[in-house]
Known about the structure:
Strand order of the largest sheet of chain B: 1-2
Structural class of chain A: alpha/beta
Order of helices and strands of chain A: EEEHEEHEHHHEHEEEHEHEEEH
CATH superfamily of the largest domain in chain B: Winged helix-like DNA-binding domain superfamily/Winged helix DNA-binding domain
Oligomer: heterotrimer
CATH topology of the largest domain in chain A: Rossmann fold
Strand order of the largest sheet of chain A: 6-7-8-3-9-10
Number of helices of chain B: 5
CATH class of the largest domain in chain B: Mainly Alpha
Shape of chain A: globular
Number of helices of chain A: 9
Helix content of chain A: 25-40%
Amino acid sequence: MNEITIQNVTKSYGSVLALDDVSLSFSENHIYGLLGRNGAGKSTLLNLITGRQFADSGNIRVDGQYAPENPEAQRKIFMMSEKNLYPTSMKVAEAFRWTSRFYPEFDRDLSASLSSRFGLDPKKKIKSLSTGYASIFKLITAVATRAPYIFLDEPVLGLDANHRDLFYRSLIEQYSENPRTYIISTHLIEEAANVIDQVIIIKNGRLLKDESRDDLLRQGYTISGPAASVDAYAAGRNILGSDTLGGLKTAYLLGECDASALPSGIEISHLDLQHLFIQLTNA
Amino acid sequence: MTREFADDKPIFVQIAERIEDCILSGAFTEESQIPSTTEIAVSDKINPATALKGINLLVEEGIVYKRRGLGMFVSTGAVRKVKDKRKEQFYDRYIIGLAEEAKKLSLTKEEVMALVERGYQR
Amino acid sequence: MFIKPILRYQAREYSRPFISFFLVYSFIIGLIVLSQRLSPQDSSGNVNFVEIGSVILVFVCGIVSFRESFKFLSQNGITRKQFFVARLCSMALLSVVTSLFDLGLVAIGRIILPSAEDISLSKIFDTAYTPFWNGGNTLIRSAVYFLLLILGHLLFISLGFVIGIAYYRMNRIVKIIVSIGVPLLLFYGLPILDFVFLNGVIFRTLGNILIAAFGFSLPVPNPFIAILSLFGSTIVFFGLAWAMVRRVPVKE
């Protein structure tokens, strides 16, 4: 039973309900995209699993074991958080060395080779790194731990295009060589969209979607064309949302495409995750 | 073979088509090895499962096959198979679109035929 | 319970302040020796509460024992309980090391300033408890004295630890209020209240409690009462610390 299960978890901060009765599970060797707008509750969920904060109610298990404050369960997880929890004077190389003592599977060769690929200087103090390099440092640490469950909270924050590219390549490479569960929490979906295979969408602390990326994308389609024809076709169907650009209208629809009813002059295409996400989480 | 993916087809189908393109162009000859799932996944930044799904599509059609412990290879006769398949798809993929676009532009059948002729002359 | 690497990390945290402290003291001792060499006739100066330095050191170490350590270890999947147990061990270790340092310091002080007046804390306690031992086994007597020293240091660490955790848990406004309010209350409010309105009852009572806690109120002062009091109050502070750590969120 290798999975993380979350049952009826609720968490509030004062009067703000951050997570509202969320139940889901993360199963072995998938790359999850944990998607949601800022403040939707993504980080809260990860913080509860790693025991950094405590849920008001509900049950969180890692491989069948109750997770919070359980050393055995926690050693299976490494979470790269957006915030820096490293001591002021600690250097990159020191952090790698200490992490390898807490995560015995830590791959020192990998951390060294990734550091040189990204141009991360191990002699630098962590606190002196730029936002981008701080993210790179944390990413390298996370991947090198070889923990069975690796959480990446906003992994590409501050990374330039080249480094984002390199990051996703390295991630796929590592995942292919050593399959494990990655949970990538982000609101920057476009680049992650093809990498993840499972999608979890959280909106205002509630679970909105939890399914494979392919299944999710198969549920809908996009049509675009003259506004009148699009409206005529879309009437009575399940519309997620739409964009208008002058007389051109694009509608995002759920369900099967009914090609016979489709007026001419209308183009159909697949939903892409980015658009689907925006439509699902709007307002 | 890195390219941007189009929105109108699932990515695994596009992966399969790209490999077919390489077979047609002779980049991957028959009985030669094609890139591994990992190589494709890394170079295209896609989930390895998606890459595998694309390759499996070709395995099902007998276009590539697996040599245990070595990797995936192009089958003998794969070029033929791909050509036959593409010919079948030719009408759906190109002619329908061509005719629609021509109608939008009010091109006559004769004008279109002349253009096709010109395309062949190139 | 996977304590070893945590303990190693935490011991490492203490090593830096301790080494600086050690170097400063060595430098001072070096200066004293040097000044003696330059003027051998002059052996003025006292061995005067020399142990107070390490008490301040361990108190400060106690205060800074929580925040950074807890955050870093949380990042590495260490639970609060693991953190706390390892912290207790590392604090005990620090107390032993600083106690040894104190013993060494007093010994060196007595060697380099043989004719000076010795009013080190050791001397005071030694003198006070002499009737209790009444000759007795010097080995046991030294062991008890060493234990007393360790527990004394542990008490100050635990006190600092509680303060450090309390500060971590406070939000900024409370932190400011406490930082200004508590010293004000302690150094002005309480004395004024005591001497102006209560005729010194509070401080007299506190003094009596302290005297009783060290077993000095008995006709023959008993060092084991001191050990018991120190141990008891240390336990209370650590209990308080655990109550505050048990469910504390990792602040980001």
